[in-house]
Amino acid sequence: MSKPKRKRKNRQSEDQGVDEIPRLPKTKPLQLRYYGDPILRKRAEPVQEITDIETKLAREMLMTLYATNGIGLAATQVGVLKRFLIVDIDPEDADYEPIMLFNPEILSVEGESVAEEGCLSIPDLRADVKRPEKIVVKAMNDYGEDIQIEADGLLARVIQHEIDHLNGTLFIDRISGLKRQLLRSELEKIQQADRPL
Ligand code: ZN
Questions:
Q1: Tag placement on the chain: N or C end, fewer CB within 10 Å?
Q2: 149 C-alpha to center of ligand 1: Å?
Q3: Residue in 150, 162, 186, 188 annotated catalytic
Q4: How far is the CA of 72 from the centre of ligand 1 (A)?
Q5: How would you classify the pairing of strands 99-110 and 134-140?
Q6: What are the tens digits of pLDDT across the range 124-160?
Q7: Ligand 1: centre distance to CA 193 (Å)
Q8: Which residues are 87's β-sheet partners?
Q9: In DSSP terms, which residues pair with 45 in a beta bridge?
Q10: Cα-to-centroid distance, 1 and ligand 1 (Å)
């Protein structure tokens, strides 16, 4: 998911950033897949175990997330059909560890909230989306351990947005038909845009 529109916090110091995150040697960002790419409509496959391949993917996806100024990214968005997502709703806070979830599954939901969303795969388009306010999610972390997370607010929203990607669903599928009609020409532009690889 892309960052909500709000004032960026000032960085405490220049060297507080992705380079300082432990377990994260430098890798190159991956190529994002954009609206219109059929892979975004596919269902991703469960991950059986965390091997060097998954660890490398996790690192590369984090680099991609930070390079694109996003707050959440699903493996599908970099062309990998594995049930894996990363979330960092406060990338500028070096103390806040990014969340990496393999095979995430929503166990329960509560409440309802509406907020504007954007997506790294659908650049420059934003719309209000209604989702449950609180969720409980089970998943495997990047060490292969089973974990359970309770989330609300922005964190819950981003996790749900990214789980949707793993099922081939985009946030524009969750807005009303009328609103989607209004966005149609913008979506066509995004689909037809030339992007350097
Ligand atoms: Zn997205």
A1: C
A2: 20
A3: 162
A4: 7
A5: antiparallel
A6: 899 999 999 999 999 999 999 999 999 999 999 999 9
A7: 18
A8: 72, 99
A9: 82
A10: 4
CB 102 within 8 A of CB 47: yes
pLDDT (tens digit per residue) in 94-107: 778 899 999 999 99
Specify whether 97 is catalytic: no
Strand order in the sheet with 134-140: 72-74, 84-87, 99-110, 134-140, 146-152
Asked if 102 contacts 96 with a C-beta cutoff of 8 angstroms, the reply is no
Spell out which residues have Cβ within 5 A of ligand 1, the ion.
119
Quote the ligand 1 centre to 9 CA distance (angstroms): 23
pLDDT digits (tens, 9 = 90+) for 38-96: 999 999 999 999 999 999 999 999 999 999 989 999 999 999 999 999 999 988 887 78
Within 8 A by CB and 6+ apart from 99, the residues are: 86, 87, 88, 149, 155, 159
**Domains (range + CATH), the chain:** 18-192 (3.90.45.10)
The model's confidence at residue 36, banded by pLDDT at 50, 70 and 90, is very high
Distance 37 CA to ligand 1 centre (A): 13
Tokens of 106: 């929503």
Q: Give the amino acid at 197.
A: L
At 128, give phi and psi (nearest 5°).
-75, 135
pLDDT tens for each residue of 73-83: 999 999 999 99
170 neighbors 35 (Cβ within 8 angstroms):
yes
